[in-house]
Write a structure and sequence with these properties.
Length: 584
């Protein structure tokens, strides 16, 4: 077995041995670790929320005078900033590989193999029929690995996302879905001034996103946002954004008050906040049917367009055209079949595509406008359903299928963690007590003051890799046990060549202040502070010579790594004081 011990001379508190797995997971933040320890999800949000990089966004010209905008317009500004500066990245090789058996052994205390296999794509999860049809392992590139070998899906902090610009082939920052969702959640608070009361992080086995409970609701989805109007617009992009909530069990809902997890019997989220979230999201996912919604529905379900036609008044004479031809023309210009620009869209279509008589077996969509003008149809009301079904009855004999799928389109019922099924709500943490009027310094001071009474607050300093405010042992365990990329990348280099490679890279950390990078971040981004480079070297040397004892000593601006009589010295600007020992 490997012994890893660390001492931070400027921070006396120690993480209990029973909690080392959770706290070291805060440093590495793989999707599996967040699944097992759901309190890490909001802790990462807090780590980004206190990042000086995020607070620097407020000085960007793009956000000048943002306080004068409505909350909705602020979110739109934030969305465009994220689109301009980040790309979605799911390169499975970025953070290396591990093995199923290794991960299952790590987490046996908290969760069993059967539960994991039902809930995690890396352990056999395939979702419902939609994902079976999609072949989810091939879709995500998992089929390149054997059954026992799985990639680390690590969540990037804001600093690690920004650092992708140092990698070949990347012009922008990058991150996977959890990285983007936690960045969005933090930026909603810091940049948009939205209270954490309204921010909910929602995780499913294959995706992570946020629901922002303002106005009609806003869903973040990777780099983009989805408003309620967008949710029902019937476009391909929106349909892709719907996949997680339509086809997956919600495994975690995280909030500043705590979390609820589909597996664990205890929930720490404020039950009032959880009910408010479910009510708000349910309203966001539900709409009555009017002319626009029906037309949007047909845009998404193109196979049902064969039951409909459009009528058009051309020079005082009626003309008719198949619905599928009209929707095909949407791709050629700005006009839509579902809104007030429909007549302009029809006017652009060559006249010879139109018929001079009504097409048999098809409903004329335009004639339905008179019906919808009196009132929209509430498809939770059986009388409204029957009335609309009678109205849509046509010769194509698909009216029942149309109605069934229209109800599904307009009334999504997510599979939430059940608050009544053997769930016990426990208030384990002191409320964070943060508000958007606070400065970064005030927020840090507040989080510091409640660490002993709030595990989420305490874990946030470990997720931020803040070595001035944490026990170094969890950070060191994560660095030595879960950073395989630097080991594999240096495989063909001698020890001396590894040292030379590290020294030729810039002596600059991707993290500011006393936050520190892990070895694979140093290698991926080809840069690091001397402390980070020394730890990267220690990780590689330990993998090659597990029988050797390594000692890393840092005092102020000097870092010394020793192995027996060998000694390597690096310069550091982190201002740290402490030691790390690794050996058998």
């Amino acid at each position: 077995m490997t012994m890893i011990q660390a001492d931070n001379r400027r921070y006396a508190a120690r993480v209990p041995e029973s909690e080392l797995e959770r706290y070291s997971s805060a440093a590495t933040l793989s999707d599996m670790e967040i699944f097992v320890f759901p309190d890490l999800l909001f802790s990462l949000i807090l780590a980004n929320l206190t990042s000086p990089r995020l607070w620097a966004w407020r000085d960007d010209d793009w956000f000048r005078s943002i306080a004068k905008l409505s909350p909705y317009r602020r979110v739109q500004r934030l969305k465009q900033y994220i689109i301009d500066h980040y790309e979605f990245n799911l390169d499975l090789d970025t953070w290396g590989i591990t093995e199923q058996a290794t991960e299952l052994k790590r987490f046996a205390r908290w969760i069993d193999e059967e539960t994991v296999s039902r809930s995690n794509a890396l352990f056999g999860y395939e979702g419902d029929q939609y994902y079976f049809d999609l072949d989810i392992r091939k879709h995500f590139g998992l089929d390149q690995y054997g059954a026992e070998v799985i990639p680390y899906w690590k969540t990037e902090t804001l600093e690690a996302m920004d650092a992708f610009t140092h990698r070949e082939g990347y012009a922008l920052g990058a991150g996977e879905c959890v990285s983007l969702s936690t960045l969005y959640a933090a930026a909603m608070f810091v940049v948009c001034g939205i209270s954490l009361d309204h921010v909910y992080s929602v995780a499913t086995p294959l995706h992570s996103q946020n629901f922002i409970a303002i106005q009609d609701g806003i869903l973040t989805n990777n780099r983009r946002i989805v408003t309620k109007n967008m949710w029902f617009n019937g476009t391909e992009q929106t349909y892709k954004a719907q996949r997680a909530l339509r086809h997956e069990q919600v495994t975690i809902v995280a909030h500043h008050s705590g979390y609820i997890h589909t597996v664990y019997p205890e929930a720490t989220i404020d039950p009032t906040a959880y009910e408010a979230f479910k009510k708000s999201l349910a309203a966001y996912l539900t709409t009555d049917v009017n002319m626009e919604i029906l037309a949007n529905f047909l845009r998404q379900h193109s196979d049902l367009q064969k039951c409909f036609q459009f009528c058009y008044d051309c020079h005082g004479k009626g003309k008719w055209i198949e619905a599928e031809k009209v929707y095909a023309y949407e791709h050629t210009g700005p006009y839509k079949a579902s809104d007030k620009s429909r007549d302009k869209l029809l006017a652009e279509i060559d006249e010879y595509y139109f018929y001079t008589e009504k097409i048999p077996g098809r409903i004329c969509i335009n004639l339905l406008e008179a019906i919808f003008s009196s009132r929209p149809f509430d498809l939770s009301n059986p009388e409204h359903v029957k009335e609309l079904e009678d109205t849509l009855d046509c010769e194509c004999n698909a009216v029942h299928e149309v109605m069934a799928r229209l109800i599904e389109f307009t009334r999504l019922q997510p599979r939430f963690p059940d608050a009544t099924a053997n769930k016990t709500f426990v208030a384990t943490d002191e409320p964070l007590g943060l508000n958007p009027e606070m400065s970064r310094e005030e927020i840090l001071a507040r989080l510091e003051s409640i660490r002993e009474r709030s595990r989420i607050a305490d874990l946030s300093f470990y997720a931020a890799r803040d070595l001035a405010r944490t026990d170094w042992t969890p950070f060191a365990i994560g660095a030595i046990q879960r950073n395989p990329v630097s080991i594999l990348a240096a495989e063909k280099l001698s020890d001396e060549e590894v040292v030379a490679r590290l020294r030729e890279w810039p002596d600059e950390s991707i993290y500011g202040e006393s936050r520190c990078a892990h070895p694979d971040e140093v290698w991926n981004y080809a840069r690091g502070d001397g402390f980070e480079k020394a730890l990267c070297l220690a990780n590689i040397l330990h993998a090659r010579h597990p029988e050797a004892k390594l000692h890393l000593e840092v005092e102020s601006d000097t870092v010394i790594l020793t192995r027996g009589e060998e000694r390597w010295t690096f310069a550091s600007s982190k201002g740290l004081s402490g030691s790390i020992q690794v050996g058998p």
